[in-house]
Amino acid sequence: EGVGPQEYTLIKMKVLQTPKALSAIKQPIYFVAATLRPETMYGQTNCWLHPDIKYIAWQTTRDNEVWISTRRAARNMTYQGFTAEEGNVVVLAEVTGQELLGVQLSAPLTQHKIIYTLPMLSIKEDKGTGVVTSVPSDSPDDYAALVDLQKKEAFRQKYGLTDEMVLPYAPIPIIDVPTLGKLSAVHAYDTLKIQSQNDKEKLAEAKELCYLKSFYDGVMLVGEFTGRKIQDIKKDLQKRLTDAKEADIYYE
Ligand code: A2H
Q1: Ligand 1 centroid – CA 7 distance (Å)
Q2: Does the first or last residue of the chain, that is N or C, have fewer Cβ atoms within 10 Å of its Cβ?
Q3: C-alpha 36 – ligand 1 centre gap (Å)
């Protein structure tokens, strides 16, 4: 980081039931999540939003689709060919993450036909789109936030989430990482005895433990690239997703 722009894969997650706050919008609506790990999309279990961040639904030129992201990200995208006019975001609605929780989505590659938008409190407003796709098998942050919701009924109730939105979703083994196993984030969480998503220091350690090893030595356990090393297939997989219009490329 720091030198030149960061390239993200923008994963498109289709809204299956339009929430009340967006009921005036008749076009297809997508949450767009910025990820560095497109090869982990086989393991998606949910989509994270920050309850207190403001999101906008805005008009793209991609097949008339409406996308949901922070205003900041939408503005950046006007300079990357996603809108009719540079610098101009056509805003159809502005809502807090809280109003968009518990929404049914369809996401690429995951075995789940339906996943839900759920709250994560460590999402940063000034990075990516403010929408984060959750892969608890390979991201300690995602696993910690999911366990928090699964363990604490009061936490689910606070955000009006039902059990069916949270409890059926376990981490899916998708990448084998030497010495860390098939659920590397779970291994790190357990080994470091992480207690919650607020355990910042230990989560930073867990990420150090997982990310490089997974990126360089991880081997796919599922999908068309089964048996292949992550670093060799990342680009091909990204292209599959963009060709299928299930993803785009975003720089910031
Ligand atoms: B990654 P970098 Cl499996 N706030 O995607 C907090 N985190 C955010 C974010 C935001 N506004 N926007 C994106 N991210 C997360 C998958 C993944 C990711 C795995 C493993 C590692 C990993 C599934 N979540 O990231 O600061 C997104 O999570 C390792 C850092 O730009 C995105 O990729 O380096 C990553 O952080 C981008 O972080």
Answers
A1: 12
A2: N
A3: 6
Which residues, in sequence order, are bridge partners of residue 212?
A: none
Helix (H) or strand (E) holding 183: none
Distance CA 93, CA 71 (A): 11
Q: How far is the CA of 27 from the centre of ligand 1 (A)?
A: 28
Which residues contact residue 212 at a Cβ distance below 8 angstroms, ignoring those fewer than 6 apart? none
Whether ligand 1 lies within 6 angstroms of the CB of 142 is answered as yes
Q: Is 38 left (phi over 0), alpha (psi -120 to 50) or beta?
A: alpha
Is the entire prediction scored with pTM above 0.90? yes
Q: Give the span between the Cα atoms of 50 and 245, in whole angstroms.
A: 26
Residue range 8-56, pLDDT digits in tens: 999 999 999 999 999 999 999 999 999 999 999 999 999 999 999 999 9
